[in-house]
Amino acid sequence: MLDSDVETSDARRSPPPPGGTPRPRPRRRRWASLGVALALVIGASGGTYYALRGGESSTPQASAALPTVPVVRVDMISVRNVDGTLEHAGSYTVLGGGGRITWLPEAGDVIRRGERVYGVDGHGVPLFYGTTPFWRDLRQGMTGRDVRQLERNLKALGYGRDHGMTVDREFTWATARAVMDWQDDLNVPRTGEVRMDAVTVQPGPIRVTALNAVLGAQAGGTVLTASGTERVITVKLPVNDQRLARKGSEVRVTLPGGKTATGRVTSIGRVASAGATNAQSQTGEGTRNATVAVHVTLDGVKSAGGLDGAPATVGFSGVKHRGVLAVPINALLASGEGEYAVKVVEADGTSRDVPVRLGVFDGDNVEVSGDLAPGMRVEVPRS
């Protein structure tokens, strides 16, 4: 952190608490105006440098006893922050296969492989993982991809090992024995055959989002809807910034309450959504406002807690600037419209205002250039 070597202009102070430089507080010189100006610069610069018209203050000034931090030379990466929404990935529909519904889960329940999704005629309909629903009843002698999907699930649940079942495309005697063991545990007739409506197939674990049926109703049509269990952040990224999103790339995520986490880009939409009115379409503004959907997965699911549908901010890394000078953002002084300076404190306690040009913003720090050198100390507000 840039503020790890903080001292006052009169005497060295203890380092600040972990967590980095405090957010900017009012400075003696138009700090409120600086906050507004910086917001405009950050939103519009994207790494563009802004030059000052003013010169360096020529008369040394006695410095107030404010904390100081060193100017450092570091590598910095510009960050583009985009708002998004934290939600569960995927949307799935569970269809009933007939019979009368005798048990239903609750909204929010998480259901995994082998667990019942709903009950019909007094027995459970369990969840299998796969990509294709069963479209036919399966029995010994059959072959096909659906047989392999059945055997893969049976093996994952611990069935078939005692009978030498192999996961392939053939429904053998060993497969039938594995089915009978599974049926025995479900407390259903041991037929060795699997009806196509005996299980529901989904890509993975599901989280119940809504019930579309009631107890006692016929299990036809939609029984419930569900999502996946993985939490993702959906971001509408402007197409002009699409180059910042690369599948697998790491991003910074800020959750409600200021908690931060890391995440990775898992998918990038291929179709842009303009979201423009007729007037915008005629003027071309709709094209400029076009966005693509980007999905980000949090590295640690626990980082998101129990939040769902909450706002989140995703920081996409841009151009890396190597070996540049940097100071905390709250070291900047507004010296004119669009012009900034820092107050350099000399070893004898005197100070002078040095105009700076701004580069990229990275977290609480900003790239600066001007009559500065590494190790010089600049004033920052008191914490």
UniProtKB/TrEMBL annotation:
Record-level GO cellular component terms: cell envelope
Entry protein name: Peptidoglycan-binding protein
Taxonomic lineage of the native organism: Bacteria, Bacillati, Actinomycetota, Actinomycetes, Streptosporangiales
Keyword Transmembrane: yes
Domain (Peptidoglycan binding-like): residue spans on this chain: 144-194
Localization (cell): Cell envelope
Location (main, coarse): other
Keywords carried by this UniProt record: Coiled coil, Membrane, Transmembrane, Transmembrane helix
Tagged with keyword Transmembrane: yes
Residue stretches spanning the membrane: 31-52
Composition bias, Pro residues: 14-23
Pfam families: PG_binding_1
InterPro entries: Peptidoglycan-bd-like, PGBD-like_sf, PGBDSf, UPF0194_transport
Chain intervals for the UniProt region annotation (Disordered): 1-28
